[in-house]
Amino acid sequence: MKGRIQCTMLLLLVTYGYLVSAQVVITASEDPVTSPGDSEPDFKTPEYILPCARTDPAIDSCVQKAFNHLKPYLVEGIPELDLPPIEPLTIPELGMENGQGAVRIKALFTNITAFGPGNYSVNKVRSDLKNLRLDLHLTIPKIELQGRYEVAGNVLLFPIQSQGDFWAFFGDVAAIARVQGIEEKRDGIRYMKIARLLVDFSLGRARFRVVDQLNGNNVIGQAMNQFLNQNAKEIIEEMRPAASASIAKHFMSFLNTAFTKVPMKVWLHDT
């Protein structure tokens, strides 16, 4: 009799434990995992955006495809994002100053028209989208620039002051853009703002032509052209940090124009 009671109690305990376990499982299943975008409305995905997912194990490849997919739309411009065409690309002003080394000059370039940026290719991406970091490796076969210039300073030991029209050709352009974004919320919707953009580049070929209009003497312009083209590699290397900073400043503004208008949920899915 005693053994039967013990067996009955054991059976009840086992049954109770099973029910408790089942209840725990059921309770857990009633509390689904949520993501930040669940509280946001659904948005239509524009044709120029290929969305990527944070959980995609091949997210670097996805981001690379997304930027290359965007190219023909950037070439024509995207009015709804207030993005002008990048082919040709017009830049109202680029200023740069270099106070060290053999080339110590202050230069201002205005009314710049650039032909060739629309042929860019993103060849490699390294991303950490949890922290909104992107490294983009780009190449551009060639870029031609034309516009106005003002320059003053010293090149080697020679003082220089000139202004006028300029033309430049750069071939086999390779660049790295390092993007650091931050998340912003407006009306409960998440956007990414670019807080920092660093640019570095290298050039395979370079040629310059200037038409000096300050000194009223074609000899000055001819001498400058000869000097620039004979020493193009050294001059570019000296001016690269200043040029990189100026280019980054311009494109940071360009990219923020777009990113601050497109909710993160549109281009970066949480799952």
UniProtKB/TrEMBL annotation:
Transmembrane segments: none annotated. GO terms for biological process: circadian rhythm. InterPro entries: Haemolymph_juvenile_hormone-bd, To_sf. Pfam families: JHBP. Keywords: Biological rhythms, Signal. Coiled coil: none annotated. GO terms for cellular component: extracellular space. Residues 1-22 form the signal peptide. Belongs to the TO family. This is Uncharacterized protein. It comes from Nasonia vitripennis.
